[in-house]
What does this fold into?
Amino acid sequence: MRHNDISGLPVVDEGNLVGIVTETDIFDAFIDILGVKKPHSRIDVYIMDRPGTLSDLIGIISSKGISLLNTVVYYDEKKDKYKAILRVETLDCESIVEEIKKRDYEIDSVIVSPSIEK
It folds into this structure.
């Protein structure tokens, strides 16, 4: 869809048009999958490309008895590092942030989101 600048696709069942999937439908699905409508905290951490790094970060969250809603990792060319975005199911994430700092990870930002309106 992005490559060909198409904003909607037909949904066909046995040759009959039964609906249309739009960019908005796909975007809404990603929002639901990522859990951003739930109250949560987002912790952005710069990490090196080393085996076990994500496991370590997830272990910190787990050790606090807090659920991880999702995580996304991408390469930040400006910093020449990877950024891990950790979305945790708590509004009180200070103990997680402190433990991450103790292990010498670089916190980029922390955002607390009590609720997201639709």
User: Anything to note?
Assistant: The longest helix spans residues 23-34. The beta strands are 8-13, 16-22, 40-47, 68-76, 81-88, 106-113. The chain has a mean pLDDT of 91. The CA atoms of residues 28 and 59 lie 30 Å apart.
